[in-house]
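Can't attach files on this board, so I'm pasting raw text. These are the components:
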Amino acid sequence: MNNKVLPQILKQAEELCRERGVRLTEQRKTVLELLCISDKPLSAYELLERMRGVVKNPVPPTVYRALDFLLEQGLVHKLESLHAYVGCTHPDHPHASQFLICDDCGEVAEVEDSSVAKSLKAAGKAVGFRTKRPVVELLGTCAQCVAKQDDTT
Amino acid sequence: MNNKVLPQILKQAEELCRERGVRLTEQRKTVLELLCISDKPLSAYELLERMRGVVKNPVPPTVYRALDFLLEQGLVHKLESLHAYVGCTHPDHPHASQFLICDDCGEVAEVEDSSVAKSLKAAGKAVGFRTKRPVVELLGTCAQCVAKQDDTT
DNA sequence: AACTATTATGTTATATTATTACAAATAACG
DNA sequence: CGTTATTTGTAATAATATAACATAATAGTT
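---
Top answer:
Structure tokens for the assembled complex are below.
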């Protein structure tokens, strides 16, 4: 995530939490911040490492609790196929996004394709399934890395 | 998976492996079989437990190696959000399926919705992303459990 | 301010999922 | 056969995640 937008993201997060009557504590804000300034998804234990020096003595529950909160509030997303977490790029509205995960460079793009959302909804409806949380992750190669590969072959 | 179709699935798997020049060994067949006769997805360690008595002294690598092979051959699928594995219901052709996962009863339905596949493909193409492996898992409540819940509320 | 209930954090231990590394055995192929 | 590939055996450990219970901080009420 571009860290130019970090202050804005944090401000927005604080506002959302205030509106909802939930508490964006220091620990939670730290985790959100670390995820947002990272250009890659981070695992819980990578987050743990980066919390040292910021939070006094972080241990796994410290991280997982903060993540649980942030996930609940839709401020971060979990990438199931990577066991890693990313900051949400547009937490202002509830949404079901899709993730394009490049296994070459590690970049992750969050997209919100209405046509995908619609077809998934329809597929569920067709069999009476009530979706709570869609997990849509496309693993492959991003445009940039595709170009690089085509150069060398 | 309905175990009436088990012999057919195994026969098909053997045929596919023969055609492809790969070996469906006893261990691999055992894992495939265990997944197919289970009505729920199984974790690697659940598989490990069920292998005792069938295979002499199974340890984690035993299971994970068999799973790796079966995943590569498209004979089983991994449910990333559950860390669990299921037998494929139609291994005869390559496909990108979606999984409807009921978090009430644990049932998993594998569906192959062409409209979903199409929209995902389009979403990737729009940004030049080359998808190798789509992960599409809808977590929620199946029709049967929705009905049950509506009864009691 | 003091009391209480709720929420958040501290702390220790452990459960669950997955991989590494190297040796031995088996199968495929000339 | 002899050689190479692949598969399996074996032991240890890495990586991810949760449980359980104690303490502390906060919010709301008197």
